[in-house]
Automatic annotation (TrEMBL):
Membrane-crossing residue ranges in chain numbering: 31-48
Compositional bias of kind Gly residues: 466-476
Sorted UniProt keywords: Membrane, Transmembrane, Transmembrane helix
Keyword Transmembrane helix tagged: yes
Sequence ranges of Polar residues compositional bias: 481-494
Bias (Low complexity): 432-465, 502-520
Xref: Gene3D superfamilies: 2.170.120.30, YbbR-like domain (2.170.120.40)
Protein name stated in the entry: YbbR-like domain-containing protein
Region (Disordered): 432-527
Length: 527
């Protein structure tokens, strides 16, 4: 009995398995899958379009209308090379459109509502033009409000302007800003006709804060500005970018170039002409250093090395805190000829250094003038006059009495006092209360009054060396007995030397021949 039940149950299980296998095969068949997919799609479509407020068998209407606000109006087709759009009114419009929900959803995501006005045929002035509406696919236009817009077109003008570059900030300490260099320095500006007259400048601003070197190859975008410095944003500038270079330099000063001389020309020679390539040089350095310079004397020429006419080139070396100089080299051209001597007669003597309350009088020579022998190039001596020679007697420290005072001679450059021909005068100094009679035995042979021991000094005091018509004898350096007797025909060769002016043989460059020395001594004498 149990065996029969087991066989029956097995048969039922076998039949169920065969049914499951048959269903799986059917579902896996391509045709069955397509049929099932179609049925599911139809069901979903019905759910979406079913109107729950109506009876279950009524399907909702497939289209609806909507209001679209603030749609931007866009101008197209305008000739922007010749016109500018000055007015577009209104700039936004209101649309009424219809379509399905799905179409509205797509349109909202893509923002495909487009309203345009065609300006391709518009001319200068005010115009009222129709609008054109482009809607997303599936939507239809019911109404656009307003349907027209007002536009105003202004003709464009183009003018050429200079570029102006401004700097801001301060460069490094002691540095100065030069004039900015712009490439190109002129540009074209395009603006509507009603704005062109507002343009005051074209340019920009560049920073030089703490700069110590030239700002070079700097690119700068240009802008147009009105007289109040406001930017004109509508301006079209061509080219709009330029290259700017701002020089950053040390302070500088132009100074006279003065040449110093050392040594002496060989015996018997004189300089007839001396030319230099520049008379001024430019020095660079801190401003406080430049303020201390009135001339530049950094060059010295050794006369002893000049044997004949020629040229030489010297380097101008910065000295002290001077940073640099320009030019860095100076060329000299000179002519050397045989020297000659010449007597300059009746030269006045300038007295300096007399103490307050004292009076001085030149007692010898009695004329108060002195003849001097000078030496130099023939052409230079030919042009030499009494106004070019100055004799100075320094009375500093001398009290009342009779004094033999040596003379200093100031001469033009390359003219010197003849060697072995020193000059002196006798000066009587009083305090204004007593008169002083010149001793008859005062012979200025050594720069001091005589002690009167000579028995031949009963006559008048001898004429000082280099005075009178016989001053030429001083160059020979011989004293005659007539001089001691007071005849005035000889020359005292032992009179005191006058500064550097009494140097033997040559003497070139020692008679205040440099421009600076001669000028300074002359000024002191005038004072």
């Amino acid at each position: 009995m149990r065996r029969r039940v087991s066989v029956s149950a097995a048969r039922r299980l076998s039949g169920s398995a065969r049914g499951t296998i048959s269903m799986d095969k059917w579902l896996s068949h391509p045709t069955a899958i397509k049929i099932i997919s179609l049925m599911i799609g139809i069901l979903m479509w019905a759910v979406v379009h079913f109107d729950s407020e109506k009876s279950p068998n009524t399907v909702a209407n497939l289209t609806e209308s909507r209001e679209i606000d603030a749609v931007q109006v866009k101008a197209i087709g305008m000739d922007d090379k010749n016109f500018a759009l000055r007015l577009l009114d209104p700039g936004e419009v209101h649309l009424t459109v219809s379509g399905s929900r799905s179409d509205f959803l797509i349109a909202e995501r893509n923002n495909d509502y487009q309203v345009t006005v065609d300006l391709s045929q518009a001319t200068e002035g005010r115009k009222v033009l129709p609008l054109k509406v482009n809607l997303p696919r599936g939507l239809e236009l019911i109404e656009v409000r307003p349907s027209n817009v007002t536009v105003v077109l202004e003709r464009l003008l183009t003018k050429e302007y200079d570029v102006t570059i401004h700097t801001e900030g301060k460069p490094g300490k002691g540095y100065k800003i030069g004039q900015p260099v712009v490439k190109p320095n002129r540009v074209h500006v395009t603006l509507p006709k009603d704005q062109m007259d507002l343009v005051a400048s074209i340019g920009g601003t560049i920073s030089v804060q703490d700069e110590e070197e030239t700002v070079a190859d700097k690119k700068m975008k240009l802008s147009a500005y009105d007289k109040d410095g406001n930017e004109l944003t509508d301006a079209v500038i061509s080219p709009s970018v330029v290259e700017v270079e701002v020089p950053i330099t040390k302070p500088f000063k132009k100074l006279p170039l003065q040449i110093g001389f050392t040594g002496e020309l060989p015996e018997g020679l004189a300089i007839a002409s001396f030319k230099q390539s520049v008379d001024q040089i430019t020095v660079y350095g801190p401003q406080d250093v430049l303020d201390t310079y009135e001339y530049y004397d950094g060059l010295t020429i050794d006369l002893s090395k000049l044997k004949q006419s020629g040229t030489m080139e010297l380097d101008v070396v910065p000295k002290g805190d001077i940073a640099s100089v320009d030019p860095v080299k100076v060329l000299f051209e000179y002519t050397i000829v045989p020297a000659e001597s010449q007597v300059i007669p009746s030269l006045p003597v300038t007295l300096i250094g007399l103490s307050d309350g004292l009076k001085a009088n030149i007692s010898l020579p009695t004329t108060g003038t002195v003849d001097a022998i000078v030496r130099g190039a023939p052409d230079t001596l030919a042009a030499l006059g009494a106004k070019d020679v100055q004799l100075i007697a320094d009375l500093s420290g001398l009290g009342p009495g009779s004094h033999v005072v040596p003379l200093e001679m100031h001469l033009p450059r390359f003219v010197e006092q003849a060697p072995n021909a020193p000059l002196s005068i006798t000066v009587d100094i009083t305090d204004g209360t007593t008169s002083l009679t010149t001793p008859t035995d005062a012979l200025p042979t050594d720069g001091k009054p005589s002690d009167g021991s000579s028995s031949n000094n009963s006559g008048n005091a001898a004429t000082p060396a280099g005075t009178g018509g016989n001053a030429a004898g001083a160059e020979g350096g011989k004293a005659s007995t007539d001089s001691a007797a007071g005849t005035g025909n000889g020359t005292a060769t032992e009179s005191p030397a006058v500064g550097n002016d009494a140097a033997a043989s040559g003497g070139s460059g020692q008679n205040s021949q440099s421009g600076a020395s001669s000028s300074n001594k002359s000024d002191e004498a005038q004072d």
